[in-house]
Automatic annotation (TrEMBL):
Record's keyword annotation contains Endoplasmic reticulum: no
SUPFAM superfamilies in the record: FAS1 domain
PANTHER family in the cross-refs: FI19380P1 (PTHR10900:SF77), PERIOSTIN-RELATED (PTHR10900)
Organism: Sphingopyxis fribergensis
Extent of Polar residues compositional bias: 20-34
Protein name: Beta-Ig-H3/fasciclin
Lineage: Bacteria, Pseudomonadati, Pseudomonadota, Alphaproteobacteria, Sphingomonadales
All copies of domain FAS1, residue ranges: 51-195
Keyword terms, alphabetized: Signal
Signal peptide (from-to): 1-22
Matches recorded under InterPro entries: Adhesion/Biosynth-related, FAS1_dom_sf, FAS1_domain
Pfam families given in the database record: Fasciclin
Region of interest: Disordered: 20-43
């Protein structure tokens, strides 16, 4: 009888602890999903370490698998492991999923390595620009800032409320959904779309 009571109490304790962990998970997911609110950047440092390089952090981040694979395929891992500093606007896997599969698959072919590298370099700006730096540049420019990428092309930065928006040369837009993820060789800002340069 005593054994039965102990087992019942243990089962109840496990059930309650299981309920507690289930409650925690949705709250965490909700915080991460709140794209332009302050808590979103706080969720990302668990994925990216300030002591690691941009290339290393992208490889380890669960929501940047497509970008990490593209960086490797384009031969840019060494560059993004270098001293920098660099500002990288990093599209998530969901952002890559918005690109038509034919285009996405085509980028990953060896014959398209230069095209893929060109697309990825369009997401990299020399120097370390924090969200505050970007906002200051936008203010100085009367609402618009032109950012020169590592390959010499321009991205246009604007603000919509507190959200920083980037517009590519081909006209598509991406919003910064998590900002100021510190890296040993720069900073990463997560974006919700792949920016397409004018080819």
């Amino acid at each position: 009888m005593r054994t039965h009571l102990i087992l019942t109490a243990a089962a109840a304790a496990l059930a309650l602890s299981g309920c507690g962990s289930k409650t925690d998970t949705p709250a965490e997911t909700t915080t991460v999903a709140g794209s332009d609110t302050a808590p979103a950047p706080a969720a990302a440092p668990s994925q990216m370490l300030a002591s690691s390089t941009i290339a290393a952090n992208l490889s380890a981040a669960p929501d940047h698998k497509s970008l990490a694979a593209a960086v490797t395929q384009a031969g840019l891992s060494e560059t993004l492991s270098g001293v920098g500093p660099f500002t990288v606007f990093a599209p998530t896997d969901a952002a890559f999923a918005q690109v038509p599969p034919v285009t996405r698959d085509g980028w990953m072919r060896p014959a398209q390595k230069e095209v893929l590298a060109s697309v990825l370099k369009y997401h990299v700006v020399p120097g370390k620009l924090t969200a505050a730096d970007l906002a200051a540049k936008i203010t100085e420019g009367g609402g618009t800032a032109l950012l020169k990428t590592v390959d010499g092309r321009e991205l246009t930065a604007t603000k919509n409320g507190d959200t920083i928006l980037l517009t590519s040369g081909s006209g598509n837009k991406a919003a910064v959904t998590a900002a100021d993820l510190g890296q040993s060789n720069g900073v990463v800002h997560v974006v919700d779309a792949v920016l397409l340069p004018q080819m």
